[in-house]
Amino acid sequence: MIRSSLPLVVLLAASTTASAGAVHGIQPADINRAGDPCTDFFDYANGAWRKQNPIPAYMDRWSRRWQSGEVNKEHVRDILTELSARTDWPKGSAGQLAGDFYAACMDESRIDALGSQPIQPWMDEISSLSGKDGVQRMIGKLHDVGVPVPFGVFAGEDLHQPSRTIAHLYAGGLGMPDRDYYLKPEPRFVEARAKYLVHVAKLFELAGLPVEQAKQNAQVVFDFEKRLAEASLDNVQLRDPKLQDNTTAFADLAKLAPSFDWGRYFDAAGIPRNAVNVTQPKFLRQFEKELATTSVAQWQTYLEWQLLNYAADSLSTPFVEENFAFNGKFLTGATEIKPRWKRCAELTDNQLGEALGQKYVEKYFPPEAKARMQEMVKNILLAMDDTIRELDWMDDATKQKALEKRATFFPKLGYPDKFKDYKGVVVSRASAWDNLVAAQRWNVTDGRSQIGKPTDRTRWGMTPPTSNAYYNPLQNEIVFPAGILQPPAFDVTATDAVNYGAIGVVIGHEISHGFDDQGAQFDAQGRLANWWTPADGKQFAAKGQCVVDQFEGYFIEPGVHHNGKLVLGESIGDLAGAKLAYRGYLKSREGKGPEPTLDGFTPEQQFFIAWGQWRGDETRLETQRSMIQGDPHPIAKYRVNGPLSNLPAFQQAFQCKADAPMVRPAKDRCEVW
Length: 673
Fold this sequence. Notes:
Layout: E1 10-11, H1 41-52, E2 61-62, H2 64-84, H3 94-106, H4 108-114, H5 120-127, H6 131-144, E3 151-157, E4 165-171, H7 180-183, H8 187-206, H9 211-230, E5 247-248, H10 253-256, H11 262-269, E6 276-278, H12 281-293, H13 296-311, H14 317-332, H15 340-364, H16 367-390, H17 396-407, E7 410-414, H18 432-448, E8 470-472, E9 477-481, H19 496-501, H20 503-513, H21 534-552, E10 555-557, E11 560-561, H22 568-588, H23 603-614, E12 618-619, H24 621-630, H25 636-644, H26 648-653
């Protein structure tokens, strides 16, 4: 996954399962022995496990990877249970903040007794707004606690001078996943719009409105959001950093939205009046139109909905259940809501993750794990160097630039060198909602405090317990939190073949994001700048088109297939990641000799099976539909079969015939890096 403060971040969406004992290989019992690795490797590598382990009702996908992610949450819960059992932590300490935040979230009886009371003062303030001036002030107040209506502001690196941090304005304010849900005519989107209207109305009813008024409000909300959607970039456009490169002098914001008092907004937020990157100027012009022409009453309805939508999961059970009915059951296919402890553990990590993370790292990420990861990263980076030098389609000038960029890669492993102190956050056991507001306000202020300053490269975009990874092109960094560095992704007791086949492919994946269709637009210093010769740029685009064409041919149901341009970056990442990790694995064995055959599988076979088992998710159809629409990651089956079908090393490992389904013909084979 790419991460930057813009929507360029490429996330991995990963997870982790426990294992113990002597050095071990892959999970042989998970293999579908009736399958054929050369026909459908996804089915072969992990088919038996999926058959024996159906997706839990509260999950939208399932594999050992996702199972281990849930185990990881149990680890987080155990830490939080221990912290919350004490009431004598020093006020403001990591233990007090994380423990009391979790305890208040777990106090379901108190939350249910309060109903919608916690947000009533906010709702009352919105309902009593006076004129457009009041609307503007309320937008600022919602932004202060992280509600991006209808736009948002975040701190991020300057696209052309990433050593400094500036403000970025981005499009927000939609209640459905993206613009296409409001605009496309396909039946699944028509159904989504109908269900969304019912959902919005139901939350208004729960907040106390009569049924008919709630329905009217829902229509107002939908119409408002549809106008915003029409002015928003689509998911493919959001992958193009050039389209979001619109640095504007502060004074020129008034040309895009003259009805908004930018000076008052920036001053109240504590943001310096410096240059701003407006990621979507068309959207900001639509915001101006709404300010100028939409009635205060309609603005009030829209802002009330945005607050309700933001707060629903922190209110009483009826709000939580209704929110799940649309965002869970309908959009993902899950049939049960997650247990409360999981939701509270996730929320605590999201809001106070570096307070919680200190305890997590102490228990679950020993020094020897970090040392082994460092060695793996080193070998896979060296494999990237070798790959660049050997390319026959790139000239020497571009190769030199590519090697310069690779040399500036900055790995972050496990946890920050300096944890956030959350100084000034007030958390108690009296109100889960007040705690959320306090934590959000601190996090928003913390981000804003970076604007106008030199970029702090010690900061992390994920918390230590997070089971994920990212690449940030503006800092040219690859980041692996401790939460993903757990079995089966990574295990200090596993063979090199297994570790390189699982987390190693992830490492290669994140490295290659620096050279995918997005990352390749950023140079060695993280600047959005072209470092390609025209001829090499054309060659690179052609190689990417091969990947686009391959994934356009992968269907989840009749008439519904992957958007090759949407998944291009992640698919380049998987293809190059598998190749780089395999080369890194071979490099790791230099001077050591080959690893033994285990359970009848050669080390080379173990490498690929490890990837198939770690990536082998069973995914609900509803979630697949959502992913096809807006997720830059392909579904798991094609993340396994797609890249491996291009690799000669895979064909050799399993002795697949040239016409096997898992072997793409030479004329169709894709290779970017």
